[in-house]
Specification:
By secondary structure, the protein is an alpha+beta fold. The chain contains 3 helices and 10 strands, in the order ββαββαββββββα.
Length: about 160
């Protein structure tokens, strides 16, 4: 059921499982512009009282102690997360949806096959990193990240 991602050293969902979980939190009439596996590099603040927040995750939980990786799908209206719990034998996950209307600022850097997103919301900041595989060509990585870059560039400072 779960696949092993040797590069990351953790059990991850298969592509079909990832798509199914992302589809579960997709609003009617919306479609994903991009989907990527990110490493959660930093989280500051709280999801408590975050306007429009939806999900199974308890908002006061400490992101970094529970999750280190997440699948993220981006639409024109929201960022949808499938958070992977990497501790213990069982691969567990939580799903959350955060409206893009609540995004204040997006700091985006793309270099050397690495996409770094610093996303600033009213009550929290999250830093996500996507590393392309060693074999992946830079132009393929740009194509893969294009949906994120196009939508998040509207929020650049």
């Amino acid at each position: 059921m779960f696949g092993l991602n040797e590069e990351l050293g953790l059990e991850v969902l298969t592509d079909s499982e990832k798509d199914r979980l992302l589809e579960e939190i997709l609003d009617d009439g919306e479609s994903y512009r991009g989907k990527l596996l990110f490493r959660i590099f930093e989280f500051q603040g709280t999801l408590a009282n975050q306007k429009g927040f939806q999900g199974s995750l308890a908002p006061e939980r400490d992101f970094l102690s529970m999750y280190q990786h997440c699948y993220v799908g981006i639409t024109e209206k929201s960022l949808n997360f499938v958070l992977l719990q990497t501790r213990g034998k069982n691969s567990a996950y939580d799903q959350i949806k955060i409206p893009l209307l609540s995004l204040l600022l997006a700091d985006i850097s793309l270099r050397r096959k690495k996409l770094k997103l610093q996303l600033y919301f009213r009550n929290f900041k999250i830093v996500l990193i996507f590393d392309a595989s060693v074999e992946e060509k830079e132009e393929d990585m740009i194509k893969e990240t294009e949906g994120f870059l196009k939508i998040l560039s509207k929020f650049k400072g």
